[in-house]
Amino acid sequence: MSPIPVTLLPDGRAVHGEHEAKGRTPILALARVLVAAGFDPGRPVEVSGADGRPGLRGRLGAMARLTVTEGDREGPRFALWQPMPADRLAELREIGRPAATAAAH
To answer: Please, which domain of life does this record's source organism belong to (predicted)?
Structure first.
């Protein structure tokens, strides 16, 4: 099974074809977008920078289930992703926060 090529651009967007995501964890957000678009969660993903050099590799489904958290007493770490509650998402949309559209994925 050939890997899904993902490019991390200098502006912080992660892209694959017509699909893209941005935010604090754009690669993981893009994985959720791709799964929602019907890509096989078992497919490998290969992320490269805009310069084409390969970097992160993983399985699409595993990447889609993760986010990164950081507490006051610990550095960044992977955690299970959970969608934003609908009432909070509606509140962000109401005030025009652009992150509200990406959070729906």
So the answer is: Bacteria
